[in-house]
């Protein structure tokens, strides 16, 4: 005899759909390695590591990681905030970078160490920022410089009594290489570089004015 409609056959509708309660992805992640207790997908973890390791994440150079960042910005920000690190995402320039949180009201352990620029790197930066601002002001979409131009300008701020030209040139080239690594310059051909908008992030207009005033004072002192 068939059972009447609605009779209990041992598998109620609730049992069929809820035999195993659903668990969110973050609560039940797939292990990436033995003992892995992390909750983020591998791609998201890589973006988080890149943000912590490098000074900038550039949309132009890392489009896939940039998309992953935007799609998972909230959780990545949360993880960085746990470390007292602020995430800045500049959509207009296509760049993301981190800042150490500092507070007079809160005892904040400092994780990010300051890695200041050398004198040669600072001089190169000031010249790049000045050229970028001038050319963008005339409507140029892309701004480029040559290594010879950089050397000629920057070396004018070196000690005039130091006649070791080769050493000065090497300092400038080392400075340029660091800025290439950090994404402020992109080498398009041998000795030819495109200045990226990152230079505006590193040197604000106010900071540029301060450095230019300092350089003028240096020149007057050695004149």
Give the gist of this structure:
The chain is built from nine helices and six strands, in the order ααβααββαβααββαα.
SSE blueprint and pairings:
Elements: H1 13-18, H2 42-53, E1 56-58, H3 63-71, H4 73-82, E2 85-90, E3 95-100, H5 119-137, E4 143-146, H6 147-154, H7 165-182, E5 185-189, E6 192-195, H8 198-202, H9 205-222
Helix pairs in contact: 2-3, 5-7, 6-7
Number of strands: 6
The structure class reads: alpha+beta
The major beta sheet can be summarized as: 3 strands, antiparallel
CATH class placement of the largest domain: Mainly Alpha
β-sheet strand percentage = 5-15%
- Give the N-to-C terminal Cα separation: 111 Å
For the record, the count of structural domains works out to 2
As laid out across the biggest beta sheet, the strand order is: 1-3-2
Helix content range: 40-55%
Low-confidence stretches: 1-20
- N-to-C SSE string, H for helix and E for strand: HHEHHEEHEHHEEHH
Averaged pLDDT: 83
User: What is the overall shape?
Assistant: elongated
Oligomer: single chain
Query: CATH topology of the largest domain, which one?
Result: Arc Repressor Mutant, subunit A
Number of helices: 9
CATH architecture of the largest domain: Orthogonal Bundle
What Rg is obtained from the alpha carbons, in whole angstroms? 27 Å
Region (Disordered): 1-21
InterPro entries: JetB
Protein name: DUF4194 domain-containing protein
């Amino acid at each position: 005899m068939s059972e009447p409609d609605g009779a209990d056959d041992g598998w109620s509708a609730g049992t069929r759909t809820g035999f195993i309660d659903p668990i969110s992805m973050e609560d039940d992640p797939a292990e990436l390695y033995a003992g892995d207790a992390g909750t983020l997908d591998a791609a998201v973890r890589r973006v988080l590591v890149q943000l912590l390791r490098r000074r900038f994440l550039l949309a132009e150079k890392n489009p896939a990681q940039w998309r992953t960042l935007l799609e998972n910005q909230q959780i990545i920000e949360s993880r960085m905030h746990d470390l007292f690190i602020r995430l800045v995402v500049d959509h207009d320039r296509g760049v993301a970078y981190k800042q150490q949180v500092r507070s007079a009201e809160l005892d904040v352990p400092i994780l990010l160490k300051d890695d200041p620029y050398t004198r040669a790197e600072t001089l190169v930066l000031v010249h790049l920022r000045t050229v970028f601002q001038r050319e963008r002001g005339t409507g140029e979409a892309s701004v480029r410089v040559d290594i010879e131009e950089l050397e000629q300008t920057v070396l004018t701020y070196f000690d005039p009594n130091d006649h070791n030209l080769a050493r000065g040139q090497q300092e400038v080239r080392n400075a340029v290489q660091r800025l290439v690594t950090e994404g402020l310059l992109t080498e398009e051909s041998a000795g030819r570089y495109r200045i990226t908008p990152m230079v505006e992030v590193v040197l604000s207009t106010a900071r540029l004015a301060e450095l230019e005033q300092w350089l003028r004072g240096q020149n007057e002192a050695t004149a």
